[in-house]
Structures are given as structure tokens and as C-alpha cells.
């Protein structure tokens, strides 16, 4: 007859093999000071709000009947399983933390706080595990004394297992303590870093002041230019109530930065540069070595890094730093040397103000919001094609305002393709390189009818919808066909203020979109998009909404369906308020260019008969290509570097 102890061990062994409880992907997680497992049934954890599936989070099934009925033994068995899983969890979390510590610090205070919390929690969890393990050992010894002699060998094995587990736990505890020490050291570095940043903050306010002043001056310049007809790239179209185009100057127009002093802070592995203007910048040794501009480390003809990452010592020291001919010259421990141009360095200063200024210069993310009173920026089609200044003004306004009207294009097909070539290349989709918006029989899209198009963005059925859209009026209808636009970013921000729950729902739930048919070729497109996309800092980055292609498939749990509809209703009502919508009517030869990630556009229904069959030709582009042309034009027009 099998003894109870033998059955206990058999049961434990089968548990170890994973047959007795759920063996799928269990992910350890720490919250509220305890370890949890969560189970991801399929798809994303965040989407798993089905109450039934949620119950799976901590559900464990034991299919194999363990015939033990002795109370104490089953208590020991349960205790053992729990402790074993605590240890496994802790080890996994530790491994994760170890990995993140091995990356260098980014100087964020929050990172230090995170580490502090995690290490404390781990230590607590460990001492709890250790306590229970000791108790378990005592309990087991007691139960062992009650067993028959012939079972001694097997029980010794089991005891050894527990002792072994305890040793592993001890080892892990040591690692945890080691991590705690490391963390202490890291927080020290963070504090040093913050103190240093604080001492230089007075210089940052100078930069802020300077950038404020330049902006103020540039605004004045634009005001002065409004209504001036002497500049060739400016076109007035009172018919539309326009705002004429002018390129705004850059915040930092170059100039040479003088270095007063350069010195290595060896402890922190930072190079400190004191500038002539009294400000100061810090550069990590590793970053400097990584960005050595010499011909060995940089392929000059491509302005690209040829230094291999495998050859970068991410803990490099610095042997010497000197100022030579107003260049910062560095000798590295391996005798390699680098020279840095002060202007190049200053532009790349790591202060948050400098980074912000450079990022704005690179990406122009500052937007000007508008409503129905928009003075639509307007340019001349031919000038944009042939004059760099006019083209630059066009693209800067397209980025800042989100819409630019161009007049004076020939009233014939082919113009959106010409304009795309001014940028680089257009974005091909299933509707073709360019596409003809006309009332078509057996239309493969609601746009190809004479019906009304409610406010929408184009192509949310793609996961990466086109960033920019061109629409050129070849022929207009006799009746109807007026255009409407609304500033989607402005509206999303207004929704966030007025109905935050609706904003949260539209920016967190993903909606299915669908588009199938045949055009350039046959297609069957599906996507899941947030109607309001936000970035990790909560800024609105894209609107994805076309009611015509919103799928009948709605991948939401039942209880979220009605809240979703109510939120969308609130957003659409806000979008459609007369005070928010700018209306215009395109005439043949007019060409509108707009940010399809930001604006929603629509058209009134029109009468589709007679000679004048309405015809718009459209094309898509992506923002990467448009921004590329904008940067190239800036360089050409202003002689930037
Ligand atoms: C479209 C569209 C506008 C118009 O084709 O997607 O928005 O005026 N057309 O026809
Ligand atoms: N086309 C058909 O989202 C959409 O279906 C927009 C517009 C290219 C004019 C498609
Ligand atoms: Zn080099
Ligand atoms: Zn459209």
C-alpha cells in the first residue's frame, strides 16, 4: 500500500512537470507590495476586461486527484507550492531589474524611485518567503517523526529538496541585497546629476528668454508682411478670407559659440563646457566617444556613423581634454582622439530646454489651433512649384496650421502628381497613385458618389493612414459640393477639457475599420485604431475616423459598447458645431493641401447632372517625406547647417 508521504511526493513531482496546474504564460507582476500572476488569455492584457477571463488571472486547476486526506500533509503541500512560486516570481522580477540596472541611467528621478520601491518589495517578499520556509521545515520535521521507518529514505529526499530550495532562496536574497547597494549608488549619481542641472538652470532661463524674444520678433515680422503685395511668394485671395504665407525664422540662427573652459568630471564621466555667454553644458563621455566625428568613426560622405557599436566602450574614461583653435579636443584611453566643433556641441546640449528647442526645429510640432474663423493660409500653385521660398512657406504653414490653399493650378488632371514631385514622391494606396473623386457607377467608396461626406479623416482602415492629402478641383458641380474642414487636434483637446470620460474612451479603445473592393488591385483591408491617438505624454498625435469605413465588427466587451457610442456622439457633435467648422467652395484650378492626421474634412452633397460633372483629383503623401522637403528647403533658403 502506498504511503501518504509517497503520494505527496508523487503529487509534487507531477506539479513540477506542470501537468497539474495551468502551464500557459503566467507573467509575474508586483503590485501593492505583493507578487501576483496575471494570465494573458490572448491579445493584450489591457484589452482583457472580460469579467470571465479576468477570473482566469489567479485561477489554478489541479486535475490530478491527490489522494492525500491527511490535513497537515495537504497544508504542507500547499505551503510548499506557494513558497516555490514566490521564489520563482522573485527570481524573475530580480532578473528583470538586474537587466534594467545594467543599462546606464538616464538621470530620471522617477527611475530611482522605481528601483527603490522594487528592491524594498523584493526584500520584503523574500523575508516572508524565508520565514514561511523555516516554518514549513519545522512542520515537515514534525510530520516526519510520525512516519514509518521504511519511508525514511524518501522523506530524506524531500527534506533535501526543501533545504536546497532554501539555499537557492538565500542566494537570491544575497543578489537582492547586492542590487540594493547598487541602487543606493545609482540614486547618489542621480542626485549629483540633479544638483548640477539645478546650478545651471539660471542659464536655461536666458535661453527661454531668447527664444521668447525671437518668437515675438518673428510674429511682428509676419504681421508686417500681411497684406503686402510686393513679395512675389505672397498671394492674396480675399475671396477665401486668407492668411498669406511667410516663412518664420528659426529660433537659433547659428552663430559661433565660444568655449571659456572645458573640463572632464571623471567621477561622473561627464565633460563640462563653460560657454562664453556664461551658460554651461554637460556631455557624457560615452556619448562623445560614440559620436566622434573623425574619418574612422564617421563616413563623411554619408554623414553616418561607421563606428561599430561592438567597438564602443560604454564605460570609457577620458585621458585628456584641451581647447585647440576653439575646438574641443579629446584624447581617449585607447589613444584615439576626437575633435568637436563648439556650435555642433552646443546644439546637442542635453539640458531639457536645449533638447526641446532642437526637437522643435527638427519636427515643428507646435501647432496653431483654429476654428470657423480660420484665415486660411493661401499660396500660388506656380510659385510653390518654382520658388523655394514660396514652397517653404507653404510647408511651414501646412505643418503649423494643418491646411494650405493653393490657387492658380491648371484645371486639368496631373497637378497633384506635379505637386508631389515637388516634395519627392507620393504615397501609393489601393486607390492608385492619384485618384479621381467623381460620381461613379458601382462606386467602391462612398467618396465616389454625389452624396454628402460627413467630417472624416481619409483611410483609417490603414494602420498608418496617409499623413498629408492633396485635393485638386478640376471641375466643380453647379449645385452643392462645398467643402468643410475642422481642426481635429483642437477639437480633441476641447473634448478632453469638456468631457474627459469621452476623451479617455476614444483614446483608449481601439475601433475596427474595414475597406474591401478593387481599384489599383483587389484589396481587403482591416485595421484597429484609436479614434484619438495620443503619445506617451498624452499629446494628441492623430485622429482616425471615417464613419463609412468603421467596421460593423466591434471588438469590445458588451459593457463598453454603449459608452463608446456615447463618447463618439459627443466628439462628432463637437466637431460639427458651426463655430468649429470652416467652410469653403473649391473652384476649378484650386488645390487644397492638408494634414490628414489632424484635420477632418467633408463635403456637401451635389447635383450630378449636366455638362459640369464634378471632378476632384487627389493624392496622398506621408509626413516623413513632407518634413524631409521642409528641412531641405530651410537649409537652402536660410543657409542653415
Ligand atoms: C474624399 C473626400 C472631398 C470632396 O474623397 O475622401 O473627402 O470634396 N472628398 O469630394
Ligand atoms: N478615397 C477613395 O477612408 C477612406 O475610405 C478614404 C478616399 C481615396 C478618395 C478613401
Ligand atoms: Zn574617431
Ligand atoms: Zn476624404
From TrEMBL:
GO process terms (BP): carnitine biosynthetic process
Signal peptide from the UniProt entry: 1-20
Pfam families: Fibin (PF15819), GBBH-like_N (PF06155), TauD (PF02668)
InterPro entries according to UniProt: Fibin, GBBH-like, GBBH-like_N, GBBH-like_N_sf, TauD-like_sf, TauD/TfdA-like
MF (Gene Ontology): 2-oxoglutarate-dependent dioxygenase activity; iron ion binding
Subcellular location: Endoplasmic reticulum; Golgi apparatus; Secreted
Keywords: Carnitine biosynthesis, Dioxygenase, Disulfide bond, Endoplasmic reticulum, Glycoprotein, Golgi apparatus, Iron, Metal-binding, Oxidoreductase, Secreted, Signal
Gamma-butyrobetaine hydroxylase-like N-terminal domain ranges (all copies): 266-338
Chief subcellular location: endoplasmic reticulum
GO (cellular component) term, any one: extracellular region
Coiled-coil parts of chain: none
Names of the cofactor(s): L-ascorbate; Fe(2+)
Top-level taxon of the source organism: Eukaryota
Assigned protein family: Belongs to the gamma-BBH/TMLD family. Belongs to the FIBIN family.
Known partners and oligomeric status: Homodimer; disulfide-linked. Seems to also exist as monomers.
PANTHER family: FIN BUD INITIATION FACTOR FIBIN, FIN BUD INITIATION FACTOR HOMOLOG
Name of the protein described by the UniProt record: Gamma-butyrobetaine dioxygenase
